[in-house]
Amino acid sequence: MPTDPLSTTFAALADPTRRAILARLASGECSVTELAEPFDMSMPAVSKHLRVLERAGLITRRRDAQWRWCRIEAAPLKEVADWAEHYRQLWEGRLDRLDVYLQELQAKERNHGGGQHGK
């Protein structure tokens, strides 16, 4: 089982059902019953997904009389976004350098008679 917070978050996000639950919670707090409605699964299965999300710090749960409410927590998602941003910047830099290189090749081809094919 992953032990660092980022690995735990990624493991929780790996499941499409859990991502769908988070997408629903992005619009606001709702009850476990409301969260379970769109899924063709038992309440214990939904509860298992919620436990995974809660252990990853992606949601918090509270109880109000007989109702159980869930709310999304943004901090772990920000950590994922920050981690991905580092790699986005890395790849953008590499793609920018590739673009410059390709433009240089095209300029050389134009300057050295690249348009004379077929003569």
UniProtKB/TrEMBL annotation:
Pfam families: HTH_20. One of its GO terms (molecular function) is DNA-binding transcription factor activity. Residues 1-92 form the HTH arsR-type domain. InterPro entries: ArsR-like_HTH, HTH_ArsR_DNA-bd_dom, WH-like_DNA-bd_sf, WH_DNA-bd_sf. NCBIfam families: HTH_metalloreg (NF033788). This is ArsR family transcriptional regulator. The gene is arsR.
